[in-house]
Amino acid sequence: MKKRIKANWQMYLLLLIPVVITFIYKYIPMYGIQIAFRDFKASRGITGSEWVGLQWFEKFFSSPNCMRMIKNTFLLSAFTLLWSFPIPIIVSLCLNQLRFLKLRKLAQTIFYAPHFISTMVICGMIKIFLSPSGGLLNLLMGTQIDFLTEASAFRTIYIVSEVWQHAGWGCIIYLATLATVDTSLYEAAKVDGASVWQRIVNIDIPALLPMAILNLIMSAGALMNIGFEKVWLLQTDLNKAASDVISVYVYEQGIEHAKYSYSTAVGLFNTVINLILLIIVNRIATKHSDVDFV
Fold first, then answer.
1. Which domains does the chain carry?
2. Rg (CA), the chain
3. Distance between CA 217 and CA 278 in Å, rounded?
4. pLDDT tier, 288 (very low <50, low <70, confident <90, very high otherwise)
5. pLDDT in tens, 122-132
6. Is residue 249 within 8 Å of 67, Cβ to Cβ?
7. How far is residue 94 from each of residues 175, 183, 205, 226, measured CA to CA in Å?
8. Cα angle 173-192-96, degrees, rounded to a multiple of 5
9. What is the pTM of this model?
10. Exposed / middle / buried, residue 50 (Cβ in 10 Å: 0-12, 13-18, 19+)
C-alpha cells in the first residue's frame, strides 16, 4: 500500500479533494439528524434540546395525509422512472445510427437544450401551454380546460415535462459508452449479413447494459426524492390529491412553519426508504446480471 501511494501520490492527492469536500458537506451535517429525535429549540442547541424519541415519527404516521403523501411520492417517482429510464437509451441508440455528422449534432443540440432551461422557466412554459384561455393544448383540442387544476392530469404533466427536459441530457453517457465499442464488431456483423436491428440487439444493447444497470440502481436509490421545485411550482389547492408529496410537505413544515424536528423526522423517514430501495434494486440487479456496483 505504501509503495502504491508513493508511486501514485499525485492521483491520491487529487482524490483527497473530493473526499474532504464530501466529508465536510455530506457526513458532518449528519450530526444534525438527531434533532429528528429531539424537541429542537434553537435557543438550547441540538444537545440541549429535550430527547423525545420517536414522537415526531408517530405524529407523521398518525397524520390524516400521511398515506396519501407516501402514495403520491412513490407513484410519481415510479412512473417517472418507468418512462425516463428507457427513453434516453432509445434516444442514444437512434442517434448512434445517424451517419450524417451535421444532422447528428443538430439532433443532439435539440435534445440537450431543454436540460439547460431552469425549472421555474419550465413551469412557466407549462402554465402557458396548458392555459385554458389561449393555451396551445387547448387550441389544438378546441377546449378550455384548466389542466393544472385537474388532479388526474398532474402526474401526466409532470412525467411528460421531466422526460422532455432530461431525456436528451441523460443519453450523453450512453452515447459515450457506444463510442467505446470496437468498430470491427459492426464491420464483422455487416459481413455476416446482420441487419441494423440485429446489430443493435447483439452489439449496442450488451455494451449499454452495465451503464444502464448503474443508472437504474442510482435512480432507485432516489426513488422517493421526487423533484421538489417542479411539484411545488405546479401545485394548486385543486390538484393536491395527486401533487401532495413528502418533499413539499417537509419544506412547508420545516421552512414555513419552523417545525424543524418534525420536518427532519419526515425527511429521515424518506431517506431510509430510499436506502432500502437502493439495497433491494442492487441485490436484484446483481442476481440477474454480472454487474455489481454497490
1. 17-53 (no CATH), 64-288 (1.10.3720.10)
2. 24
3. 6
4. low
5. 999 999 999 88
6. no
7. 10, 17, 12, 28
8. 20
9. 0.82
10. exposed
Q: What is the pLDDT of residues 66-124, one digit of tens each?
A: 999 999 998 888 898 888 889 999 999 998 888 888 888 888 888 888 999 998 999 99
CB atoms closer than 10 angstroms to residue 91? 19
Q: Considering only CA atoms, which of 54, 32, 58, 55 is closest in space to residue 45? A: 32
What is the rounded CA–CA span in Å between residue 63 and residue 253? 13
Which residue do the cell numbers 458532518 mark?
A: 28
Residue-wise pLDDT tens digits, 223-266: 777 778 889 999 888 888 888 899 889 998 988 888 999 999 99
- The whole-angstrom separation of Cα 224 and Cα 247 is 9
All 3 cell numbers of residue 53? 424519541
b/e map of 167-193 (b: 16 or more CB within 10 Å)?
Answer: bbebbebbbebbeeeeeeeeeebeeee
Query: CA 158, 166, 101 angle in degrees (round to 5)?
Result: 145
Q: What is the pLDDT of residue 291?
A: 55
